[in-house]
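Example 3.2
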Amino acid sequence: MVLGAALAYAGIGHLTTNRSEFQAQVPMLLKDYADFVVLASGVVEIALGISLIALWKYRVQIGSLTALFFIAIFWGNISQYINKVDAFGLNSDQARLIRLFFQPLLVAWALVSTGAWRALKRK
């Protein structure tokens, strides 16, 4: 539930108040489409967040999708570090590097909190 709320909140930020901050994290290869990428990822985050809260019966599948989403957007965090882009208060190489270590924790949170990790281990 907490992960769902956090995702929905972050997704709303993509569409509103933090739009330019999120655009700064879009990889250079996609810079021409930064606004679209931010809006699309925001919609996906909102959908995943609401789904984690409202569709708990499908939590394993949604948890797996959420983990895949976190893996997909990791590219943006790596790009922010490599290209030394300041956003969200990450205004030093050290801060941007430390941020990279939190993405695997988000993946783990999505998998463990939804039972997706247990389901994957059974297969």
